[in-house]
Amino acid sequence: MEIVLGGLLEILQPQTLLLICVGTVVGVLVGALPGLSSSMAVALLLPFTIYLEPIPAIAMLAALYCAGTFGGSITAILINAPGAPPAAATAFDGYPLAKNGQAGRALGMAAAASVVGGIFSLFVLILAAPFLATVAYRFGPPEYFALTIFGLSMLASISGKSAVKNLIGGAFGVLLATVGVDLTTGVERFTFGVPELYEGISFIPVLIGLFAMAELLDQAGQKDRPLERFSMSALKLPTLDDFRRVWKTILRSSGIGTFVGILPAEGSTVAAMIGYNEAKRWSKNKDNFGKGEIEGVAGPEAANNAATGGAMVPTLALGIPGSATAAVILGGLQIHGLRPGPYLFENQPNLLYAIFFAMLLANLVFLGLGLVGARYFSRISLIPRQFLWPAVFCLCVVGAYGVGQSLNDVYIMLIAGFVGYFLNRAGFSPAPIIMGLVLGHMVENSLAQSMILFDQDAWRFLTRPIAVFFFILAALSIVSTPLGTFIRTRRREEADRLAHGNE
Amino acid sequence: MTILRMAALAASTLVLTAGLAVANDYPSQPIEVVTHASAGGGTDTTARTLLIRARRELKVDAFVQIKKGGGGTVAMSYAAGKPADGHTLMAITPTHLITMARGRAPISIDDIKGVVRSTDDPIIVVVNKKSGIGSLDDLKSISEKAPIKWGGTQAGGIDHIAAITFSKKSGIKLAYVPFDGGGAMITNLMGGNIQAAGLNYGEAVDGIESGDFVPLAVMADKRLAALPDTPTLAELGIDGVNFSTVRGIIVMADTPDERVAVLEEKLLKAMSHGTYQAYLSGIGLDASSVGDAQEWDAQIRSMYANIYDTLEELGLRK
């Protein structure tokens, strides 16, 4: 307990507090702009932190990391361009909400859910970080394979459109993920001799293309439709009733996010996807998902922010980064001559708890920023579309370019935009494609790794209890929807029969 | 303390002015360091940390230019397209050498010239203590029954080449399990999914100190200062397996020699500063990581030869 308070005292210095606030504001802005990721911002700030003491320096970077994950949801909701990959799932329902004139409600919910998710995971960490760290060791390739299969099991029902089309979209996403040099064989696939494709198709340009660019093309097609009058309801924040409806979703997603975040190399994007899946699975309004369901915003947002806290556990406790940004923060510790790992827990517990408190503070700062800002940000959705969308186009191009500073990514974004536009018209949703792309790498690599570990004997998956557990969950998830429909029809038939019997 | 520092600064300014006179007002423009990896990775962080002091030494601005893609191909084309006047440097790793050896690079090994080495991180053969393996002989006898599960990064990358070369020269049978990065390798070694891995000191040190990992041998000519009791492979009778995760600065071969000399001197000086040294110790290395032009240039060429041969045998050369 003394150590925890010691950490708190380290943070309560005027300079440190100021740096945390700066980190948070920069994080929200960077997160909101597509193409500027929080990992990039942290990397660029690293050299400047050399002149600071380690604790304020790392506190600022950690605050930036937290806030960046939240920031991504702002553009995801308002213009369908997720500012950061973890916000991809937020766009599924956030953007439809904004389109229905409820931008403020979606933004407010994103802020609140993010903060609850973030704080939840930090409390779990403060209480149990050293213990949780060992969870990471229990996850080898077979367990990852089972976990991703579970993630993919919701593919058919991820969007409200037809299950077959969702599966086709998912398979397309997995196919895109195979482009580049294969991790396990070193063989090039689908690169057509283009060196730029050697390291695969990066995820962010595809994301921006499928969401924002495709939507832009769609909007351009409605040029001659009269502009509807916007109601000022767009500025309304979520009501207490909304919160009453989603608190379960938020708590569930916070748990999921913390857990997925702790697994090394998993990260917030996958957490958000699973958070969205589970929000949908347990919701009473399943059919409303993808059309503007407030639970569909709360689910992924709580999960991706809980994952940022989770990701710091293996980073600090084991020296194994839990996400890309956490890896950069790890670099920051190293620049200050600190070696993350079990020794950090023993020798510098103050630093550890100071980082947790910095992230906690960052959460509170962006809650304020998010709720107050929601009123102002949501005005963006009041901008007439002939002015808004050309500006969005600039953001798309800059966003796609910014990631790898390569024009090829811009071409990929444009192609993805056209593909996305036609797929939308043909009744496909971008959600399963994105999910296939995110999980495709992992499902393939973890299977290949597992087979090498098992000497090519697939039956040995059954010797791994955690893997079996996730396989069972996946199986239940696949059969639950048809089974539910079956039971419901049976009941209805039963009721019909009884009704007839009475006649 | 302050007086000392000022004196040092004054001295360095003097040296700098002298250097400038020799090299014809070089450097006269901002210096660009081309890297191939994403912001925040090891190469990026090393380059940025190096530049903090290099800016002062060179008296011009210096920045990192990221050109990702193609296993360094994009970075190499970019650097090769710039005038060879010493204002464009490139940070290279074994990845670039592999891309060259696979015949996919726009430039060849003869087109580059080493300036300084910034990190040198030999690969250490590490096993999990719980596996009961205590020596290379144990490793060999266990591999007779089933191949040792050996963790590394990308197939066809430096770890893979090191593992294959090691297996070939020692007769130990390996099943190479590629992972996304060092973190995944360590967790899997810790969790017992793999029995052995080729790790850098910085990656292995926590496990070694906590007693969970046993270092069997170092793939280098000399023992590591930090692991004085761990023999080199050569001491154990396995010659010619020298692999390390090295990073260093190169320029195009046409760059005038006197400019390379200026760069070498200033960069070495920048790396001797406490800022860079603290970074080195943070990643588990020491001052011996830094190498001058002669040493680094020779190392690039011998590593290239090793990589070339192994890729030829793996059938990964075009």
UniProtKB/TrEMBL annotation, chain A:
InterPro entries cross-referenced by the UniProt entry: DUF112_TM (IPR002823)
Membrane-spanning parts: 17-37, 106-132, 144-160, 167-185, 197-217, 311-331, 351-374, 386-404, 410-426, 466-487
Superkingdom as given in the UniProt entry: Bacteria
Keyword Membrane in annotation: yes
Pfam family, one: TctA
Signal sequence residues: none
Keyword DNA repair annotated: no
Protein name per UniProt: Tripartite tricarboxylate transporter permease
Source organism per UniProt: Hoeflea poritis
TrEMBL record, chain B:
Ranges in coiled-coil conformation: none
One Pfam family of this chain: TctC
InterPro entries in the cross-refs: BUG, Bug_dom1
UniProt KW keywords: Signal
CDD domains: PBP2_Bug_TTT
Signal peptide extent: 1-23
Keyword Signal: yes
Family named by the database record: Belongs to the UPF0065 (bug) family.
PANTHER family according to UniProt: BLR1237 PROTEIN, TRICARBOXYLATE-BINDING PROTEIN
Identification of the protein by name: Tripartite tricarboxylate transporter substrate binding protein
Gene source species: Hoeflea poritis
